[in-house]
């Protein structure tokens, strides 16, 4: 489920870039140029964060949860004995 969320965030960021980049003017002097550069920087950070989350999430989360629950059951059995 979380990978779907990351993909939706990437698509939304792509749409914002598609509409926003033609309107930005990073070579202007003053606040308009600074705002454009900051906006592009934050967009790149969002893209990098979501791609990192997609690429480096563990694949076997369910297996780990089952192992933990089996270990917990063993501890409970030992406790009751």
In percent, how much strand structure appears in the residues? under 5%
Total number of β-strand segments? 0
Helix-strand makeup class: mainly alpha
Instruction: State Rg.
Output: 22 Å
Main beta sheet, described?
Answer: none
Oligomerization status of the protein chains: single chain
Segments where pLDDT lies below 50 for 5+ residues?
Answer: none
Shape: rod-shaped
Tell me the number of structural domains: 1
Whole-number average pLDDT? Answer: 83
Order of helices and strands: HHH
Determine the number of helices (DSSP H or I, runs of at least 4 residues).
3
Fraction of residues in helix: over 70%
Protein model, in words:
It is a single chain. The chain is an all-alpha fold. The chain has one domain (2-80). Helix content is 79%, strand content 0%. The chain is built from 3 helices and no strands. It has helices at 2-20, 31-55, 61-80. It is rod-shaped and about 70 Å long.
């Amino acid at each position: 489920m979380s990978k779907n969320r990351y993909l939706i965030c990437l698509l939304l960021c792509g749409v914002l870039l598609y509409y926003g980049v033609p309107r930005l003017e990073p070579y202007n002097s003053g606040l308009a140029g600074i705002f454009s550069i900051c906006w592009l920087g934050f967009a790149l950070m969002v893209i990098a964060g979501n791609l990192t989350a997609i690429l480096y999430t563990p694949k076997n989360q369910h297996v780990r949860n089952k192992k933990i629950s089996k270990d917990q059951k063993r501890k409970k059995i030992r406790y009751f004995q």
